[in-house]
Amino acid sequence: MQFIDLKAQYAALEKDIRAAIDGVLAHGQFIMGPEVRELEAAMAEYVGVKHAIGCSSGTDALLLPLMAWGVGPGDAVFTTPFTFIATAEVVSLLGATPVFVDVDPRTFNIDPKALETAIDEVVAAGELRPRCVIPVDLFGLPADYDELRAVADSHGMLVLEDAAQSFGATYRGRRAGSLGHAAATSFFPAKPLGAYGDGGAVFTDDDELAARLDSIRVHGKGSDKYDNIRVGVNARLDTMQAAILKVKLAAFPGELERRQVAAQRYSQRLGNLVETPVVPDGYVSSWAQYSVLTDRRDHLQAGLKAAGVPTAVYYPKPLHQQTAYASLGYSTGDFPVSESCAARIISLPMHPYLDEATQDRVVDAVAEVLHAA
Ligand SMILES: Cc1ncc(COP(=O)(O)O)c(C=O)c1O
């Protein structure tokens, strides 16, 4: 059994993927070839934004807008400790300071009320300037952007949506990727829209920001790449990955439907055994992960492993407890919801090619392990 079955997806899309790869081999424009712009146009339309800017990873998709906004030393950037390190890492790389804010226990996403409190504390301390918030759409479920935008607007702060896991999700009729001043997504192979290597994209409606991002991803280029008008990076999306992603994007709406069916089926069958994920009214998750909570997480994971069911724990250690962030001075107990989730969460196999028989094997194994305890 696969945790995320990329081989099954390849079997379904093989002909078109091979043709797309052959197309790139034939024209030979491996860097910024036509498929990059074609993919960007298709993604912008799907997400419902004016601009999609392809880049080399989800991490760079977070870094580029922060660079474009000039985020740096003295700036406070608020995010949750219950995320992948990349969300905070880009802030530190630019010399700004990550300020952690606990999550909502139902959605695992940043708590807008806790954000307000954290901003007030930073203002009162008087050392840092509240500049930006990076809400993370964890496991594919968007954060509460209406609430978050209200808090951010009242402090003149920017919102960078970390949509690495939520491509395809919707929030009150708007797609993930369109919910902040800019958004970052990831095409890491295991993501809802995954490439065959690293890749990412930034989405925005802001024309000026889009132009800056287009420059920064190619060494701060001006009229051409040897005219350098700002300090940038090499963060381009490979043509080959763009060609593959174009094929996968065409198949994506159907895959997203299948994820909804699988998630619903899990929730119907697992509700008496574990705490199943909450999707508030008006939200649609992209189900990057199907994650449940149980006090007997380690027991469940070991039992499922013995039964041949692959699982994963996202994330076993919140960022404020990571060695890399020891210098920020946080302590265990500072973010009790994140810490409790980290101790109790486990993700089950989830992908669009999960058939009912396999899913039933997962559910039966969960029941057996938890009842046998
Ligand atoms: C929430 C979150 N943010 C950022 C990233 C970084 O994306 P990438 O691995 O493409 O750099 C990931 C993915 O790993 C992620 O899950």
N-end to C-end Cα span: 24 Å
> Gyration radius, to the nearest Å?
21 Å
Residue ranges: pLDDT <50 for 5 or more in a row? none
Number of strands: 12
The dominant shape is globular
Spatial ordering of strands, largest sheet = 1-9-8-5-4-2-3
CATH domain fold name of the largest domain = Aspartate Aminotransferase, domain 2
CATH superfamily of the largest domain: Type I PLP-dependent aspartate aminotransferase-like (Major domain)
Class computed from helices, strands and strand pairing: alpha/beta
Number of helices: 11
Number of domains: 2
Largest sheet: 7 strands, mixed
In CATH, what is the class of the largest domain?
A: Alpha Beta
Beta-strand percentage range: 5-15%
Q: What's the gist of this structure?
A:
The chain has helices spanning 6-27, 34-47, 58-68, 86-93, 112-125, 145-154, 207-216, 239-270, 297-306, 336-344, 356-372; strands spanning 51-55, 75-79, 97-100, 129-134, 158-162, 170-171, 174-175, 182-186, 200-204, 283-284, 290-293, 345-348. With 373 residues, it is α/β, with parallel strands linked by helices.
Question: What does this entry look like structurally?
Answer:
- The chain has a seven-stranded mixed β-sheet, with helices on both faces. Strands 7-6-10 form a three-stranded antiparallel β-sheet, with no helix packed on it. The protein has a two-stranded antiparallel ribbon with strand order 11-12.
- The chain contains eleven helices and twelve strands.
- The protein has two domains: 6-101 and 108-247, Aspartate Aminotransferase, domain 2; 252-372, Aspartate Aminotransferase, domain 1, CATH 3.90.1150.10.
- α1 (6-27) runs antiparallel to α8 and α3 (58-68) packs parallel to α4.
- It has helices at residues 6-27, 34-47, 58-68, 86-93, 112-125, 145-154, 207-216, 239-270, 297-306, 336-344, 356-372, and strands at residues 51-55, 75-79, 97-100, 129-134, 158-162, 170-171, 174-175, 182-186, 200-204, 283-284, 290-293, 345-348.
- It has 373 residues and is of the alpha/beta class.
- Helices cover 42% and strands 13% of the residues.
- The structure holds pyridoxal-5'-phosphate.
